[in-house]
Design brief:
The protein is an alpha/beta fold and 178 residues long. It has a single domain, classed as Double Stranded RNA Binding Domain, CATH 3.30.160. Strands 1, 2, 3, 4, 5 and 6 form a 6-stranded mixed beta sheet that branches. Strand 5 and strand 6 form a beta hairpin. The longest helix has 26 residues. 20% of the residues are buried. This is Lipopolysaccharide-assembly. Pfam families: LptE (PF04390).
Amino acid sequence: MKLKSSARIQLLLMGILLSLQGCGFYSFTGTNLSPTIRTITIQPFVNESGGGPPTLSQTFTEGLRDFYQRNTNLTITPNDGDLLVEGMIVGWDLAPVAPTASGTDERGDLAGQQRLTIAVRVIFVNTQDESASFERNFSYWADYNPNQTDLQSAEPRLIDEIFERIIFDVFNATVANW
């Protein structure tokens, strides 16, 4: 019996998809994990930077956990995961990046833009492939105009923007191999 052309194409596509799934190292979420890796432990990050709001470390830890839950099939466990992510916030730096034309005020030079930079030290352990383990810093920055808003008002937006980028970079370095 002859198969129609569209049935052949469907059968071929199904075979390709099954073979990709069978190899275990490809996923449509962009991760590149062995099928034997099923759990991840993300320890609470500690704020060692000396700056930022009191909830800074909790915000980062929860954001990291949420990102892994949304983008992998890994189960988050409190201990003994196949993967371990831990670390600390090591940098909180606020610096002027653009002077204004208006010169100075009683505090000194006025800045047209302030830059908040946050750095996070990450220790990653892959219990099944020690060569994939690492310890390194990730950092990112965001600017705001101090003449339009104060730091306390801008801080939540800046932290969200910075942590979104750092979490994405940590994810890529740990499970996506980008």
